[in-house]
Structures are given as C-alpha cells and as structure tokens.
What we know:
The protein is of the alpha/beta class. The chain is built from four helices and four strands.
Amino acid sequence: MAHIVVITHEHDRLLERKLFRRAESSYMIHAILEDLRRRGHSWTIAQGFSTKIAGDAAVLHVDSTTVDPAYIEYARGFPLCLNVGVTDISKSRVSTARVVPHDGWEGPVIVKGVLNCGGLPESRLNHR
Length: 128
C-alpha cells in the first residue's frame, strides 16, 4: 500500500481539526485521509518543508491564498503530488468576473478582497 505525505503550512494544525469527524470539518481532506486509512494506505502530516519525509505520493494542502515557492519545491520532490499546480487561488487569479476601469459597467458591484476566505487562513497562520 502507498504512504502519502500531506504537506501543510508549518503553523497549520490540521490534525487538531477533529480529523475523523467529517461532519464537523469544512475540509474534504479529512474524509479522504480517513478513507485512505480504511483502504490500507498510511499517511503522515508534514508541517512545513524543513523535515524531509519519504512517501509514495503527496498532497499539497497549504491553507493559504498563495503558496510559498518553497512548499512547491518540496512537493515536487515526490513521485506524485496532488495540488502542486495550484499555487494561487486569489479571486483575481481564478475569476473573470471583474469590473475594471473604462469597461463601461455602470451597475452595482460587490467588492471582494483578493484573499480567499476573507484572508482568515493567512491571519490564523501569521499569528503563530
């Protein structure tokens, strides 16, 4: 069976988020890891990129709008890594629904910040 490394931000506390209570978690990764374990696979959480952990595959799960290039470099060291191409999920990057100067739009708009989830993940990680 495969050993999967889940790469998180060095200050993330993924395991403290009620890992095996999917109904209480907003992260799909919890249910996925539980299912992988039931199927005989093992996994390890790599908090940060300084400790090299061996694995057959990895999942990049840095809970941040943009991913530090050092995490990408670490993730590319695995034979297979999910999410390694997802380095920026900012609204300006993933959405084409934007109003820009001189586009002729005169109707109402909803102003949203660039950071995902109102910047809460960054705020939480930066406080540690």
